Please model this.
Amino acid sequence: MRKRVLFGVVMVLLALGARSAQAQARVITGKVTSAQSGQPVGGATVSVLGTVIVAVSNAQGEYSLAAPEGVVNILSRSIGYKRKQVQVAADQATADIALDQDIFNLEAVVVTGQATSVEQKNLANAVTSVTAAQLNAAPTSTIEGALQGKIPGALVQLNSGAPGGGAQINLRGVSTINGNPDPVIVVDGMIISNAAIANNLNAITNAAGGGNASNQDNPVNRIADLNPADIEKIEVLKGPSAASIYGGAANSGVIVITTRRGQTGAPRFHVTQRLGEFGVLSVLKSRVFKDSVEADAVYGGSAQAYCTGSGGACPYFDNISPLWDHHPLSTETDVSVSGGNDATRYFVSGLVKRDGGIAPNTGYDKQALRVNLDQQMGTRWSISVQTQAIHSLSNRGISNNDNSGTSPYLVFPLTPSFVNLAPTGPKITDYPRNPFERSNPLQTYAFLKNSEDVWRIFANTQLKFDAISTAQHNLRFTATGGLDNFGQRNDIYSPPELYFESNDGQPGTVVLGKTQNTNVNLLGSGVYTYTPASGSLTATTSATVQYINTSLNFSNIVGRDILTGLQNVDKAANITNLTQNETPVRDVGVSLQEEVLAMNQRLLVTGGIRGDRSSRNGDVNKFFYYPKFAASYRLLGFGGPSNEIKLRAAYGQTGTQPNFGNKFSPNLTGTIDGQFGSFSGIAAGSADIKPERQTEIEAGADATLSNGRLIASLTVFNKTVTDLLLTTAPAPSSGVATRILNGGKLRDRGLEASLGYALAQRGDFNWILRTNFTMTRSKVMELPVPTFQPPLGFGTSLGTFQIEVGKSATQIVGNDSTGAVVALGDANPDFQLSLGSDLTYRNLSFSFLWDYKKGGSVINLTELLFDLFQNSKDWSKVGDSSGVRPAHLGGQQRLNEFFKGNTYPYVQDASYIKLREASLAFRLPQTTVSHLFGDRVKGATISLSGRNLIRILPTQYRGIDPEVSNFGNQPIGRNIDVAPFPPSRSFFFSIDLDF
Amino acid sequence: MKATRILIALSVLVSGACNFDIADPNNPGPIGNDPSPSQVGAAVTGIIIASRAPVGGWNLISGILGREAYRFDGSEPRFISELLHGPLDPGDGFGGGQWAGEYSAIRSSNQLIDVIGTATAYSAADQDAVRGFAETMSAYEFLMVLMARSQDSIPVAVDQPLTAAPAPFVSNDSAFGFVSGLLDAADGHLASGGTAFPAGVTLPSGFAGFDTPATFRQFNRALKAAVEVYRGSLGCGATCYTTAKTLLENGSTFVDTSATADLQAGVYFNFSTNPGDAANPLFQNPQTGENHVNPRVVDSADTNASGAIDKRVPAKVVSRPTQTTDSLTSAYGWIRYGNSNAPIPIIKNEELVLLRAEANNALGNGLLAAADVNYIRVTSGGVLPIAGLGAQTQAQILGAILHERWYSLLYEGHRWFDLRRTGRLGAFLLDRPGDQVFSTLPIPLGEVQARQP
Model:
């Protein structure tokens, strides 16, 4: 409190002395260009040092500045370029400025608060920025894919290969065991929803039983809706020391996304047209049976009818590959236009894309429209408006765990390869019945519809008021109001003729799911910056207040027994499930922060505190406070004028909001014989539940050496999580399966390093290498409850996670042959390493990005299923069985081990090396461009690019893909492989035009 | 420019203007003090729903353990690996099953029992009727747990706060005694429960004929008779058998072998596909479902004079294409539950007749026992009576009783427990080398872990 009063007093005093007028006498004009390419740089700011005079270059790079008399120093800067200071003589009227490319983003401005930012070179936290260029190096289906391998400290993994997204961005290890594992997503100052709404495929798969929506439905978390082409940059606040500014919900970090803004000048159009296709990256096949003797050993007499070749030879049909062998044309069109004048700037973009799926009836369509406006209203007021409308339609087929013989990779293990499942014609009845399991996956995919249709609108407005604007004092108030609204409709239609449909006596299933989500954000901030005339320091004081109202309404109806062709649930003979679920949440956050940049911009010291209050807490009136401190110091002059090493240290706290409903102990309800009943639930809440608290200390060094050609960054952190939201299991005889409480302690330690090196940096030849390294280790320090297994997974005999004091939070345990529960692996990778290369020679550029994950176990139940039905491809292989837990056994050997009680063959080291991106681009010479497209077109680039082109599995894992999570996004229980949708690779040919 | 004050004022305004105390919008809480008739009614119905939940799983799993059924489930191999081959895993829903669901239903009963005395809308008789109902259902759930377990680790004093130390384990025998006592207490409450269940309480149609305190007592006494026969076979001997015999002969229960007798009369759990309801989990397309009949059911059936098989078999079992999975083969599907709405019995007249036979046999009344056995054989099975059965040894007559119980109560969750409690698990024939017969499910891992320091 004392701080705030002081802040007020200082501000009032300073406000009295405010002046904004400046003497203006002459005009300086000039052109800002790129020193490397000579191309004009639009949108660059050009300012007169020591004054508030500033101009912005237009699309031709031209600027005009009203400068005071005498010799002045002007400074030009633009995103992606290093700043440049030029002295202009008293009689000089023009000054052209050539900016050097800032290949390592050293001068990028990075957020330090909800209303403040600082340059990368001063930053006291390890915040990673990803630029638009890095983001769009190769086309991506959804944005998460474009972040893989680019952020030290982040493990970005898809949950399956199904089109339309569904991925987890995990920052700095384990931040919670039962809370939200996903980072807060902030777009232009507004927190948006990253909810994952299950589609209730469970009504078909029965994976979780009960017919209601389940986390095994392979849901998409809605960050997938963002359009990568609109994004100017992404800043990743990885741990609490940086994320503390977002306080009580930022346990898993924060991803701050800034969209592109208009640039002054005549309208500039950018058009990208892409054509390409997706293809399956890997397929898991089944066993080849030699003859009827071999087949009879598994199938008894029932194989006789098939293996009728000479000597009882079995025919071979590959039923698996054809399912994933579709290559429809995929297209993407991005159009944007940007322009404006000193008062008004606009950026408008549109996207139309269609990603064809690798299986029939799958794919992902998206259309998006964005309008960003900036309007200056006089000298003190400005307003910014961002609106985006997005429509996405994903068709995701059927995959993941089931209990109904419907998910393809749960059908194939039972289906011997001597059976032919190929259709004889296009009709649903032309598909042969599968004599060995309840469905024919080829028929299922050809006729089952599973679509997710999302309409989403983001709209937010920022009103800025510069109360004071002088060389020494700046006081700005900003009010932001924003809305994130989406409606998601899920339709599943399973026609009665599908062979599995008759099993429940109710042929035909229709599911209608409707979800409405509204996030309302209100954010008010005041930022006061004081720079004494001496210029020796800059002190920034900021205060914010934020209110968020979130309302997520989910409803789902399942109808069974329906006439062919009818798809409305009300036409079904039986409505078997009706679900409505409401999730209203209200949060308030307040923050106060002081940031001092001193000693000639060499020392940065920051301190702040954030308070949060949430309707999810047991005590809804209580504010929980999260402090932060950070400092950095730049050591200059290591063998070169622009060489420096920055030392930094930061401390901060964040919270994990209790999950909605943690404070309730709900009864369950149901009906029997038409009567309503209410009975004890099995999950007991806690009326005094409170947030988890993460406390992190981070320290590191950032070096810029070889005169800016080499940058190196090293960060270590130690994070502890206390007051964990734990689900303890009371004795089951209490009648309750789980009880929520706060307690325990968890620790993460990690090391992040990144290195960038410009191998060559000449006018026409540039070659930059980038590498990132990440290593984290978690350890459960204290538990107020006994060792427990999170309620995911399938029991110790099939491998499961186990939370145990002294052990990694992500350890995987299983049984051994004595029935004992033993540690068999850890989902957390040993380390991650990525290597990217950007090479430009004249008009040609070539880039690639390799992503290596070493270690990290996957529970491969898909393989177990193939083994159990003696149908694995390597069934007869005799692998080296020496040593403890041999890693390369054949199928029969694995199953023998499993029958001895051993789980180990199926907990597998899932290291991978993936070529995430590769792109070859050619910028057409201007003469060719003019010749081809006319003079209006100012630039054209053609490129060939691909994503996930190569995958190497160097160790034990033999499954479909190690990026897998049967239960979707999870803080702990990822890496459970049960019949996932296979991954795909994509190739695109693109042409980019600027005019 | 008093920015701070503005901010503070704004924050107060913002947080003050909104109500943060949001009640659970999705679910009711536990029943509280002074419940209204409709709340009591919902709790009564809720207890039946909660008690119904584990029944399908028990009938299937005990059916597999008791060599009545197989489940060839591509997604879930443990039905035929863990349950037939072992080891039973106390950490999963197979080895560690038949516990949590039953205790959860018991918790629902206890929640109602704990507050029913405060219901001002009810007379003392009304309260007793509800109390007697809840205690009877609670006793039935304890019995379900005991049917799956032979070891001495059954908590009974479970009506306590969640933060309390777990209820102590008691011996299997005392747990049976506790169930018997609880049924008696319930019977006393039902006896003083007036002529009808109070306003708000309507039992589902599966309880038709047992839906007043007086008729519900017949159900209570039938359960008591079963418990006493089970206790008799588990070591209590003549005392318990005598109690059972008395109950089954003095008109306390609904046992009936008269000319108009309906062997299927009894108390059932209803199922349906209506929203919020549960479909019968044991109903599947008999030709394509994962659940199969263990062929020994058909192989061991008796035939009548004309060579036709015991008619209980074709009523419950149907031929289907042969399927072999993991060296197990079956050519039969289940039609015991003919559709999604088919009810599952809790206890029925046919069982009471055989319980009476078992009590009589154990007490040396072989002729009486034989009469009941042969009555079932003829009436229910359409096969010839066993001549001279009453003169056979007690062990032989018990064998005949168990055979009839097998076919009369097929797929109803009795076979494994029957052979276990009578010490005849050795009679089960194994399908594969390495398969084994289990005598009990282990105590669930969670129950053990909750007691570790």
Observations:
- The mean pLDDT of chain B is 93.
- The radius of gyration of chain B is 25 Å.
- Chain B touches chain A through 103 residues (CB under 8 Å).
